[in-house]
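Hi there. Long-time user, first ticket. I'm pasting a complex I've been working with (about 889 residues overall). I'd like to know whether the download I got is complete or cut off, because the file seemed smaller than I expected. Thanks.
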Amino acid sequence: MAIKSLTVNGKRVPVTYNDAQMPLLYVLRNDLGLHGPHFGCGLGQCGACTVHIDGVAVRSCITPLSTVDANKKIVTLEGLGTPQKPHRVQKAFIDEQAVQCGYCINGMIMESAALLAKNKKPTEAQIKDALANNLCRCGTHARIVRAVKRASA
Amino acid sequence: MNIQISRRDALLGSGALIVSFALADSLTGAQAQGAAKPLTLTEVDSFLAIDKTGKVTVYSGKVDLGTGITTALRQIVADELDVPMNRIELVQGDTLLTPDQGKTWASITIQVGGMQLRQAAAAARQAMLAEAAKKLGTDNLTVADGIITAGGRKKVSYAELIGDKSFSIKLDPKQPVKEKSPKDYKIVGKSTPRVDIPDKVTGRFTYMQDFRVPGMLHGRVVRPPAIGAKLEKVDESAARKIPGVARVVREGNFLGVVATTEWDAIRGADALKATWSKSETLPDQAKLWEHVRATKVVKEDTTSNVGNAAEALAKEGAKVRKATYDFAIHTHGSIGPSCAIADFKDGKLTSWSASQATHDLRKQLALMLGLSPDNVRCIYVEGAGCYGRNGHEDAAADAALLAKAVGTPVRVQWSRADEHGWDPKGPPTLVDLQASTDGSGNVTAWDSIFYIPQAGPELNVALVAAELAGMPTAKVSFPGNIFQLSAIPYKFPNVRTVCRRLETTPLRPSWIRTPGRMQNTYANECFVDELAAAASVDPLEFRLKYLDPADKRGIEVLNRLAALAKWEKRPSPKKAAGGNVVKGRGISYTKYELVRTYVGAVAEVEVNRSTGRITVSKFYITHDCGQIINPDGLKNQLEGNVIQTVSRTLIEELKFDRSQVTSLDWNSYPILKFPEVPEIVIELIDRPTEKPWGAGEPAAAIIPSAISNAVFDATGVRLRSIPYTPAKVLSAMQAS
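Hi, the file is complete. Here it is re-exported in full:
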């Protein structure tokens, strides 16, 4: 059993583990009890597990624990905003009702927030391109694009 | 109306009003065709309770599969009962608490489940009014926000009326309670924001995949490398070396690992060295349709028979057209793989899962483990989007088996490969059609044969764990009511539609959104288009010519669609415009199951003639499902219907070899991505005074055919095999 520290949503947290190759997602969900990042594929194909590491949208399901340490700032959907004080992207998703089941929405919001941090006014094509590797099965795409546009306005 | 108010031991202790249905077996589904089995309320018959604080608890056997139905059901109850939305709590899919309202399927949650709740709410409101009349000494009462007012002065709240008394109201479905006049609805018909969205977009929502119970271990099942393979030998030594691995569980061909952490369970399962027998039970996929055609037919269901189609087809001078359509095997592809937790203690099982049918799952798990259903409780926890019977029940069975073996609660989270490889599939569908026309192009006969798997006696799918462990489960998996919409809405003089029910189908079948109705409508609406083109008639005009003129709502849907899409009246195909990228438009129509929701669709497509790539650029939808509860929620569903089905039409096909499914991830079973999503224009036709009908499925039924007909319009080439991959498009263009 080994132990290390991570910085998650602004807090330093100790983490114990058996295997340094364990993906970060399992730490966030099972050890820290977070519900934002979701397990979707474990292969980096769907985007449901997306978190920010130093502001970059990263697939936590294929990010080994060994590659992150306390110097890296990990932010999850919970760290972005709350129901009372949502981040502007979260607020835009509420305003556009851009959710069906909502399981993929973590990835959609985290990916979009990272996009808008770099590009304040993306075109529709740029939004679709940025989300091209985030899968939604319910077919919420049209609303998601509208929400990202609203957040960028 | 027959409401009785009496004291009884209340579900919530003293001080409550409870509405239940009086007759356990008299609640019937609203489907007029008699296809759905009657809903029986054998477990818990209470639908609604108001406690002495005025809090309303709704007990819904129908569950939210990611459609927002918990908001819509609250709207129905809040409006009928005159209480604010936020006073309503909703308990869903708990076999101990909620009535058995049947599976959450077939687009009947609002249509059937919601209307039962509306009755319960209406009865509760009337009972409260009667109590208030006694207390306030007048019948001249108004209600708002759970407070009854007499003449604008004297007031009493529901909470005060209930006090420490217990009211039990029994409803008799044969004597429905009078509901409010639709013109008085204030919440129904409005785009009320969904109650679950703020938590879902901030990571505060608990999906089944997020749900945990104290003292829980993690389980992982080792899947055989081939369907039907026998487990010959297991070497546990490497798995045992992984620190968290607590147990290896073997039961027949069922092999699983239980560990203290999820990652250790995954590593433990990977480290097990299992030897399996060779098994090749699947047909050669390259010859799938020959296989389907050669499969033994156990039953022939004639789903419509008008006049004498055979005679008309054989008539001298009849011009006969024939075509065969096929529709690939699809997987559900929920973004979150199935997940469940089970706790087995003192001979009793508690199961948490995202099953769309917890009451049925309860019976299945009881049968599998040899328990009395009384000793099994199944609790619904919302999971990732569910579009039919996917792997949730199987994950529940995995967890139950492991929990029973280890004696502690066990959580089973399926992998992506488990979900793609082992959830039950939408079966392959093959359709032969022929029709005859007279010298003037009028249709004289329509004759179709659908090759679809048989339906077993029970409405359940066999549980994978039970099959592997050799425990009892459904012998024939139910594929859904896939005969629906084999019959057609068009009034041709001679029609015969037949479903040949096949003894077997390559993979475990189940229902996926719009089961059968999508495949059958695809063939029918494309073939109608073929007849219109052969007669050189505009395809919209052709449909209108053969629709029942008395069916005004259907005709209105199509006429409004024509206006919405600025439909240009002309036969298909379009005159060749030349160039590499050609454009076309196609139309399709359904009256769902021939008795309810009307939908029309126009697709606009572009076809690249050199690559064979189809781009669906735009969809227009007109939709009449009667009274609309939540217009924005409805639009959300319709957008989902379009986008998911564009994906199914253009891209999706489950691949397998002779042993097993080989589409085990999103690369080998891709779905539509953002850049390929069409623009969608929707016109809702609200009919506040009509019954509300379902909307989760009907629009999806006509998406494949609208696309197909648009491709024909653009290219003059008729595609008859879904999915429409570039390779198939190119080969069809070369062949023509």
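A couple of notes from our side: The longest strand of chain B covers residues 443-453. Chain B touches chain A through 65 residues (CB under 8 Å).
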